[in-house]
Write a structure and sequence with these properties.
heterodimer; A: PTS-regulatory domain, PRD; Gyrase A, domain 2; 4 domains; 19 helices; B: 976 residues; Barwin-like endoglucanases; Enzyme I, Chain A, domain 2; 4-stranded antiparallel β-sheet; 39% helix; extended; EC 2.7.7.6 (chain B); zinc ion binding (chain B); magnesium (chain B)
Chain lengths: 400, 976
C-alpha cells in the first residue's frame, strides 16, 4: 500500500494511529531507514502520535475570542499614519490601523485601491512589451498627449498633439496622422463637437460662440480618457527579482481588476488587487478569503508585527466569508445578523433592536455567549460547555 | 441570600408588544394623583409612590407581596390615558402600515399572488437571519403603488408623516378658486384668438350649459368626474392638497381592522403584537424600585427623572379629562392631546430629533427609558454584560524579584478583607478554629462563620474566642486569604487573555500588590503608578479552573504568536549579556553568590585554575539552569551564534533572543518541550541569576556615557555641513528648474523626497561617527546590543544628531504663510527652516530646534490618543463577531448555533502555542525514532511519558505549603 518498504505488521501499527498522511509517511520513512522491528515501529508511531495529538487544539477551545484578541491587541501598536510606502516608493498605499479597519469593515472601495499586475513571459522580460501593457492599463488623459490652448477670439480649442507620445502610446498604429484622427474621433464622441484635424493639430469649438461653453469644453476635455482604463490613474513599472531571473511587474494606482485580467499580456494567475470585493466578484469567495488573509497579513507585517499567527487571520477571513459573500465585522455585518436579540441589543443600537424584536415576535433561546452573560447563566464555551460531572468513585474501581 | 430558594434559570426570552388589557391585569394599582408624598412624608395612595408599587425604604413592607425592600422587585402600576397616544419607537412602522393598508377596509393592498411572494421572501430572510424590515419595506412599496384597494375598491391617499408623531392624509380636493381658474383658462393666450365660449366648453366636457354657468359663477362645486373633464379640456389643475390630520384614535381604529393574515405578510407576529397596540391607551408605571427617590442631606427628597416625567403625564392627562368633560373647544383639546403625546414621547425617548428634550429644573435633559438602556453606561452594556463584583481589590503595583512569577504579593489589609469559604471537617477543624480565634483583624483570621442551620454570624474582636470553640465540622468559615490561595489578577485594558491570570497569594506587609517583573510584558504593566485588580475566587470549581488553566505559568506561551510572552526583560537581559558575552571568570565565592537564589547548591567542575585558585565561567554558571539534555543552536540579538549542547552553553551570548520575553529561544523551547513547569523554574532562575550578575558587575548610565570627544564632534559637524551644502545644491537646481522629477511625482515632491533622503543620510553618518567612539562596554551600547532597552538610533540621537523632525510624514511645513517661523525668509527651503535638528540631545537643542522637536512630539501624542480609541473599537467588534466560535470534539470550529466556520482550525487543526512557528508540523520524527531505538530512558515512567501513555505530573501549588508551614522549610535546611 505504501511506497515504503515496510512489513504489513508495521503498516498495521502505523495505520492504527490518528496521524495525518504526511506524518505517517515520515514514520514509514524513518522506520525503513532504521530497519526497526515491529515493536519499535509501534513505539515510534505511538510516540509520534502522542506528540501530534499534543499539538492539536484542545476541544472546546474558544478559538474565536483568542483570534480576535490576537488581532485586536497589536492594533494598539499600529500606526495611524495613513500614507506610507509599500515596497514601491512611487505609490501611496493606506497602511496600519486605517487599512486594518478598512479590511475588517469590508468597505466597497478601499481608500487607495491598487493592483499588482504580473505579466506573461514575453511581456515580463521585455521593457518595451511591458510598456505596451502599461498603455493599455493606464488612463491616458489629454494633458499627457499634447498642449491645449484656447483661442478666445475665434472661440476655438486648439490641441497640439505631441507626435512622439502618440507613437509611444499607440505602438501598433504606424502613422501619427491616423492616431491623431483616432484622438479627434474620441473627442467628437465624448464631447459631441465637430473637430478639425490637421496632422497632429486638432481644433474644435462650441456650436455657438460662448465663452462659458468654451471653458466648459476644455474642462470636459481634461476628463476624457483616450486610452486605458478610466479607474487607473497611474501605472508604475518595476523590475523585480524572481527565482529564475528578473521580470517586470506593474503597480497601479486605482483598480479595475476585471478589466485588467482580460488584457493581453497580463498573467491573470498572479495578478492581484487590494479590493476584496473586486476579487470576490471576479474570482469567487475562496479567492476573497485568500485575499483577506493576505492583505491583513501584509498590513500587520508592514508594521513589524509579523509574529501574529496566520491561523487567527484565517479565522477572521473565514467568518467574513462564511455565508458565501463578504460580510463586514460590525453592526452591518456579522454582529448585526446574530440570531439573539439580546446579543444584538448589547452590541449597538440597543433600543431599535428591542423594538424590532417585539414587532416580529422574536424569541431569544439564549444559545450564544452575550445572552447568557446577560441572563446570568454559564456560557457554552470552554469549561462551560462540558456536561461531565464528577461522581464519587466506587469502591471496586478504587480496589484496582 | 436566601438559600431556601432554588435559583431560577431562564430558558428563553419572548419578545412582543403588550395588550393594554395585560397592562391592566398586571398592574398593582391605577395611578391617578401626580403627587408623591403627603406632608408627613407618607406615600399617597394611588400616587406615584404608592406602597403597592414596591418598597425602597428599608424596614417597610410591600403592600402587594408583603416582602421587604431588597427582596421585593416592585410591581407595575398603570395610568389610564385620556386619549390614545402614539408609541415613539414605532412611528416608522405606523407610517408604513398606514400607507400599505386600505383606508376603508384596512386590508393590505396586495393581491394574493403578491402576498405569496412576500411570504416566501419572509421565510427566506428568517432562515438566513437577515433583517426582516427589508421585506416589510418592499411589501409596503408594492402596496403603495395601488391607487385603489384591490378588495373594496376604495381610492387610496398618500400619508404624510410629520416627525415625530403626526400623520396627515393628503387628499386632492377642489380648490376654492375653481371658478376664477376656469375663467382665466378660457381667456385666449393670444389677444387675436377668440375666447373659448361657454357652449364650447359645455360641449367638450359633456356638462350641461346651465351647470357650466353655475360652476363659473361659483354657485356649484363640480363633482369629481366633472372636475376631471374640465381639467382635461382646459389643461389646468383645479385641485389643491388637503391635509387631513389623523388623530391617534383614528389610527387605532384603522389598525384594529387589519386582519391577522395581512399583518403576517409584513412579518409582524399577529398573536404577539397586534398593530393597534402600538398606540397606547394605557401607560404602565414602572415600579418604584426602578425609579428610587433619594433623600438629600437636608431631608428633602429628590425624585428620579422617570418620576418627574410621570408627574407631567398625569397632570396633563387630568387636565385633558377635565377639559373634555367641561366641553372645551376642539382647539384646546387638540393642544392638550399634543402635549400629552409630547410627554409620553419623551418619557420613552428623550433624544428624538425635532423634539426639544424634556429638561430638569436645572436645565439638564432628563434621562428617560431609552437613555437608560443605550450606550456604554446603559443597562445592556453597563449593567447586564458587565457587572460589579464582590471579593475584589485594587491597589498600586510594585516589583518584587524574590517572588516566583506564579505569585502575587497581597497586602495584609487586603488579605483580611478578601475571604475564602472553608467547609469545616474533622480534618481542618483545628485550622478553622485557629482562624476564627484570630478574629477579623489578626492575619490568618476569619470574618464570618455560618452555622449548619444556615445562620451567618459575624466574627468580631469580642466574640472570636468564644465563637472559635463553637466551630464544629459542618460549619462554614470565611477565612482570610493565606499564602498559596489562588486569586485572579488583572490589569486593564484587558486586551488579551494574558491580561487576566491566576496567581498564588503571598501575604505581605505594606499597601501594594507585589509581582515578579517578568510578568510585566503580558500585563503590559510598569511601576510608575499602575494599579491592578485582584479577585478572590469563591468556589472550588473556579479555583480548580484558575489553577489548571489560568495560572501564569500556563500562559507563558502567547497564542498570538505561538512564542513565549513571559521571559527576561530589561536588566535581566543586560545581566545575562554581561554574564555570557565575554564569558568572564568567577571564583568560588562569586560563583556561589551568583547562583544563590536558584535551586543549584553545588557548583559544577571548575573550568580551570587561575593563580592557583579554581574559577568558573559565566557560561558555565548559566548552563547550570538548563536541563541536561537541551540542544539548541540559534542566532543571538548581539549577532553571534549560540550553541547549547547537552545542557551546556558552549558558545554565544545569551540576550533578548535567548531568554527574552516575546520569543526568547531558550524559554520558548523549554516551555514547548520540557513543559511549562520547567519553563517557569527556568525563567525565575534566569531572572535571579541575571540580577545577581548585574549587581556583581555594576551597571549604570550617565550623561558622560553619551558624550563624544571634540574631534568626533567636529567630524559630525562636517558631515552635517556637507549635507547642508548638498541640500543647497538641490534647492538651486530646483530653482533653476533643472530638477528632474521622479516618475509619478511632481518636482516639488521630488525635491522634498531628495532633501529628506540627504538629511536622513546625514543623521545616520553622524550616528556612525558617534558610534565609533563608544566602547563595547558602554552601558547604552550593551543595552542596545543585547536588546535590553533602547536602540542604536536612540544613541545616535543622544550623541550624534537628532535629525529631521516630521509632521504627517513630511518636513515641517506649517506655521506662517510660506514659512515655518518668522525667523526665516518666506519660501526658504533650507534644512534648518523646516525642522532639521542638527544638535544632539546631550549637546542641547537651539530654541528653534526645540520648537520643531515639540511639533513632532505633539503629533506622536495625538496619534496615540486617536489610536487607542480606534483600535479599542476594532477589538470590540472583532470580539463580538468571533466570540461564539469554539473548536468541537470533532476538530471543527463552529459557532453556538452549530454553523461550521472551519473544518480544521487554521487548516491543520493545530494550536499556535504548540507548534514551532516556522516548522510545518513541528514534530521531528527522526529524533523520536532515534530515542526509541536507543532506548535511553531513566525509568519505565519516563518512557511511558514519552510514548504518551502517562501524563506529565502537574505541579499544583508552588510554595503555598512551605510558606504556610515554616516547619517544612526548616526540615529541609536541617538536612545539610
Amino acid at each position: 500500500m505504501t511506497e515504503f518498504d515496510v512489513s504489513a505488521d508495521v503498516e498495521a501499527v502505523v495505520e492504527d494511529t490518528e496521524l495525518p498522511e504526511e506524518l505517517k509517511a515520515e514514520v514509514y520513512r524513518s522506520v525503513e531507514e532504521r530497519d526497526a522491528s515491529v515493536e519499535q515501529a509501534d513505539e515510534i508511531a505511538r510516540a509520534v502520535e502522542h506528540r501530534y495529538l499534543d499539538t492539536r487544539v484542545d476541544a472546546l477551545d474558544p478559538v474565536g475570542t483568542v483570534s480576535a484578541q490576537s488581532i485586536g491587541e497589536p492594533g494598539t501598536q499600529l500606526t495611524m499614519n495613513t500614507f506610507h510606502y509599500a515596497g514601491v516608493a512611487e505609490i501611496d498605499v493606506t497602511q496600519g490601523l486605517p487599512r486594518l479597519i478598512e479590511l475588517v469593515d469590508a468597505r466597497k472601495t478601499p481608500d487607495t485601491p491598487t493592483m499588482t499586475v504580473h505579466l506573461d513571459d514575453e511581456y515580463a522580460a521585455d521593457r518595451e512589451k511591458a510598456h505596451e501593457v502599461v498603455w493599455k492599463i493606464e488612463a491616458t488623459k489629454i494633458l499627457a498627449l499634447g498642449d491645449i490652448s484656447t483661442n478666445v477670439a475665434d472661440m476655438r480649442v486648439h490641441i497640439d498633439l505631441n507626435p512622439d507620445t502618440l507613437q509611444e502610446r499607440w505602438p501598433t498604429v504606424d502613422s501619427v496622422d491616423e492616431i491623431a484622427g483616432e484622438v479627434a474621433g474620441i473627442i467628437e464622441d465624448s464631447l459631441g463637437v465637430k473637430t478639425v484635424q490637421q496632422g497632429t493639430n486638432v481644433e474644435f469649438g462650441p456650436e455657438e460662440p460662448s465663452y462659458r461653453d468654451l471653458l466648459q469644453l476644455v474642462e470636459e476635455l481634461r476628463d476624457v480618457t483616450f486610452k486605458g482604463i478610466e479607474e487607473v490613474s497611474r501605472v508604475v513599472i518595476r523590475k523585480e527579482e524572481t527565482e529564475d531571473g528578473e521580470e517586470f511587474v506593474l503597480y497601479t494606482e486605482g483598480s479595475a481588476f476585471g478589466d485588467v485580467l482580460s488584457i493581453e499580456g497580463v498573467d491573470a494567475s498572479r495578478t492581484t488587487c487590494n479590493n476584496i470585493h473586486e476579487i470576490h466578484s471576479e474570482l469567487g469567495i475562496e479567492a476573497a478569503r485568500e485575499i483577506i488573509i493576505e492583505e491583513t497579513k501584509t498590513t500587520l507585517e508592514e508594521q513589524g508585527l509579523d509574529d501574529v499567527n496566520v491561523r487567527h487571520l484565517m479565522l477572521v477571513a473565514d467568518i467574513m466569508t462564511n455565508r458565501g459573500e463578504i460580510e463586514s465585522i460590525g453592526r452591518h455585518g456579522i454582529s448585526g445578523s446574530k440570531e439573539s436579540v439580546l446579543a444584538r441589543a448589547a452590541f449597538e443600537v440597543t433600543v431599535n433592536h428591542l423594538l424590532d424584536a417585539a414587532i416580529h415576535g422574536e424569541v431569544d433561546d439564549l444559545n450564544g455567549v452575550t445572552e447568557n452573560v446577560i441572563v446570568g447563566k454559564p456560557i457554552k464555551l470552554g469549561t462551560g460547555d462540558v456536561n461531565l460531572k464528577m461522581g464519587s468513585t466506587s469502591r471496586s474501581s478504587q480496589a484496582d | 441570600m436566601a438559600s431556601s430558594q432554588t435559583p431560577k434559570e431562564i430558558g428563553e426570552i419572548d419578545f412582543g408588544l403588550m395588550d393594554p388589557e395585560e397592562y391592566r391585569d398586571m398592574s398593582a394599582t391605577k395611578i391617578i394623583t401626580a403627587d408623591t408624598y403627603d406632608d408627613d412624608g407618607f406615600p399617597i395612595d394611588m400616587g406615584l409612590m404608592d406602597p403597592r408599587l414596591g418598597v425602597i425604604d428599608p424596614g417597610l413592607e410591600c403592600k402587594t407581596c408583603g416582602q421587604h425592600s431588597g427582596s421585593c422587585n416592585g410591581h407595575f402600576g398603570h395610568i389610564e390615558l385620556a386619549a390614545p397616544v402614539i408609541h415613539v419607537g414605532f412611528t416608522k412602522l405606523i407610517r408604513r402600515l398606514l400607507r400599505g393598508t386600505c383606508r376603508e377596509c384596512a386590508r393590505l393592498c396586495l393581491t394574493e399572488d403578491e402576498r405569496d411572494e412576500f411570504r416566501g421572501q419572509l421565510d427566506q430572510t428568517r432562515k438566513l437571519g437577515r433583517d426582516l424590515n427589508d421585506v416589510t419595506k418592499a411589501a409596503i412599496r408594492q402596496a403603495r403603488k395601488k391607487d385603489r384597494c384591490p378588495f373594496c375598491g376604495e381610492g387610496q391617499f398618500d400619508i404624510q408623516h410629520e416627525k415625530p408623531t403626526t400623520y396627515y392624509e393628503v387628499q386632492q380636493v377642489l380648490t376654492s378658486e375653481y371658478s376664477q381658474r376656469i375663467a382665466a383658462a378660457m381667456q385666449p393666450d393670444d389677444d387675436d384668438d377668440e375666447p373659448m365660449g361657454r357652449e364650447a366648453l359645455a360641449n367638450e366636457t359633456g356638462i350641461e350649459l346651465s351647470r357650466v354657468n353655475q360652476i363659473l359663477s361659483g354657485e356649484f362645486r363640480p363633482r369629481e368626474s366633472d372636475r376631471k373633464a374640465l381639467e382635461k379640456a382646459l389643461d389646468i389643475d383645479l385641485t389643491e392638497e388637503d391635509m387631513n390630520k389623523l388623530m391617534p384614535s383614528d389610527i387605532r381604529d384603522w389598525f384594529e381592522d387589519i386582519p391577522d393574515e395581512d399583518i403576517e405578510v409584513l412579518g409582524i407576529s399577529a398573536d404577539k403584537s397586534r398593530p393597534e397596540w402600538m398606540i397606547l391607551t394605557v401607560l404602565p408605571v414602572p415600579p418604584v424600585t426602578a425609579r428610587p427617590s433619594i433623600t438629600l442631606d437636608n431631608g428633602q427628597r429628590s425624585e428620579d427623572d422617570l418620576t418627574h416625567k410621570l408627574v407631567d403625564i398625569i397632570r396633563i392627562n387630568q387636565r385633558f379629562m377635565e377639559n373634555r368633560e367641561a366641553g372645551a373647544p376642539q382647539l384646546i383639546i387638540e393642544d392638550l392631546w399634543e402635549l400629552l403625546q409630547y410627554h409620553v414621547t419623551t418619557f420613552m425617548d428623550n433624544e428624538i430629533s425635532g423634539t426639544p428634550p424634556a429638561r430638569h429644573r436645572s436645565g439638564r435633559p432628563l434621562k428617560t427609558l431609552s437613555q437608560r438602556l443605550k450606550g456604554k453606561e446603559g443597562r445592556f452594556r453597563g449593567s447586564l454584560s458587565g457587572k460589579r463584583v464582590n471579593f475584589s481589590a485594587r491597589t498600586v503595583i510594585s516589583p518584587d524579584p524574590t517572588l516566583s512569577l506564579n505569585e502575587v504579593g497581597v497586602p495584609d489589609r487586603v488579605a483580611t478583607e478578601m475571604t475564602q469559604t472553608m467547609n469545616v471537617t474533622e480534618r481542618n477543624l483545628e485550622d478553622a478554629r485557629r482562624y476564627v480565634s484570630n478574629g477579623p483583624e489578626g492575619h490568618p483570621g476569619a470574618n464570618y462563620v455560618r452555622r449548619p442551620d444556615g445562620r451567618r454570624l459575624k466574627v468580631t474582636e469580642k466574640n472570636c474566642e468564644e465563637l472559635a470553640e463553637k466551630v464544629e465540622a459542618g460549619w462554614e468559615v470565611n477565612r482570610h486569604l493565606i499564602d498559596g490561595d489562588i486569586v485572579v489578577f488583572n490589569r486593564q485594558p484587558s486586551l488579551h487573555r494574558m491580561s487576566i491570570m491566576a496567581h498564588e497569594v503571598v501575604v505581605m506587609p505594606y499597601k501594594t500588590f507585589r509581582l515578579n517583573t517578568v510578568v510585566c510584558p503580558p500585563y503590559n504593566a510598569d511601576f510608575d503608578g499602575d494599579e491592578m485588580n485582584m479577585h478572590a475566587l469563591q468556589n472550588e470549581e473556579a479555583r480548580a479552573e484558575a489553577r489548571v488553566l489560568m495560572r501564569v505559568q500556563e500562559q507563558i506561551l502567547s497564542p498570538r504568536m505561538g512564542e513565549n510572552i513571559i521571559g527576561a526583560i530589561q536588566d535581566h537581559i543586560s545581566g545575562t549579556y554581561l554574564l555570557t558575552h565575554d564569558n568572564p571568570h568567577f571564583n568560588e565565592t562569586q560563583a556561589l553568590d551568583l547562583l544563590r537564589a536558584t535551586r543549584i547548591d553545588e557548583l559544577p567542575e571548575e573550568a580551570g585554575t587561575e593563580d592557583g585558585r579554581p574559577y568558573w565561567t559565566g557560561r558555565q554558571l548559566f548552563s547550570e539552569l538548563l536541563p541536561d539534555d537541551l540542544n539548541l543552536e540559534f542566532q543571538s540579538n548581539t549577532g553571534d551564534t549560540v550553541v547549547i549542547e547537552d545542557g551546556q552553553l558552549l558558545e554565544g551570548t545569551i540576550d533578548e533572543d535567548g531568554v527574552g520575553a516575546f520569543g526568547g529561544e531558550v524559554v520558548d523551547t523549554l516551555a514547548k518541550v520540557y513543559g511549562e513547569t520547567r519553563a517557569r523554574i527556568f525563567i525565575n532562575e534566569v531572572a535571579t541569576l541575571a540580577m545577581r550578575s548585574i549587581m556583581h558587575f555594576g551597571f549604570s548610565i550617565g550623561i558622560d556615557d553619551e558624550t563624544i570627544p571634540g574631534a568626533a564632534q567636529d567630524r559630525i559637524d562636517e558631515t552635517i555641513g556637507d549635507a547642508y551644502d548638498r541640500v543647497q545644491e538641490l534647492i538651486e537646481t530646483y530653482e533653476a528648474g533643472e530638477l528632474e522629477s521622479l516618475p509619478g511625482r511632481t518636482v516639488d515632491e521630488t525635491l522634498e523626497m531628495k532633501i529628506m533622503q540627504t538629511l536622513g543620510k546625514a543623521r545616520d553618518n553622524a550616528g556612525d561617527i558617534a558610534e565609533e567612539h563608544f566602547e563595547d562596554d558602554n552601558p547604552a551600547v550593551v543595552m542596545a546590543n543585547s536588546g535590553a532597552r533602547g536602540s542604536m538610533l536612540n544613541l545616535t540621537q543622544m550623541a550624534g544628531c537628532v535629525g529631521q523632525q516630521a509632521v504627517r510624514g513630511t518636513r515641517i511645513n506649517r506655521g506662517y504663510e510660506d514659512r515655518t517661523l518668522s525667523h526665516y525668509k518666506p519660501d526658504d527651503l533650507s534644512a534648518e527652516a523646516h525642522g532639521f535638528v542638527e544638535h544632539s540631545y546631550t549637546g542641547g537643542l537651539t530654541p528653534r530646534e526645540f520648537f520643531f522637536h515639540a511639533m513632532g512630539g505633539r503629533e506622536g501624542l495625538v496619534d496615540t490618543a486617536v489610536r487607542t480609541s480606534k483600535s479599542g473599537y476594532l477589538q470590540r467588534r472583532l470580539i463580538n463577531a468571533l466570540s461564539e466560535l469554539e473548536t468541537q470534539y470533532d476538530g471543527t470550529v463552529r459557532d453556538t448555533s452549530d454553523t461550521i466556520v472551519q473544518f480544521e482550525f487554521g487548516e491543520d487543526g493545530t494550536s499556535p502555542t504548540k507548534v514551532a512557528y516556522d516548522d510545518d508540523h513541528g514534530i521531528d520524527v527522526d529524533q523520536i525514532a532515534d530515542r526509541v531505538l536507543e532506548a535511553e530512558f531513566e525509568s519505565d515512567d519516563s518512557k511511558a511519558e514519552f510514548l504518551g501513555d502517562k501524563a506529565r505530573p502537574t505541579n499544583l501549588s508552588e510554595h503555598g505549603e512551605a510558606r504556610r508551614n515554616p516547619d517544612i522549610l526548616s526540615e529541609v535546611e536541617s538536612d545539610d
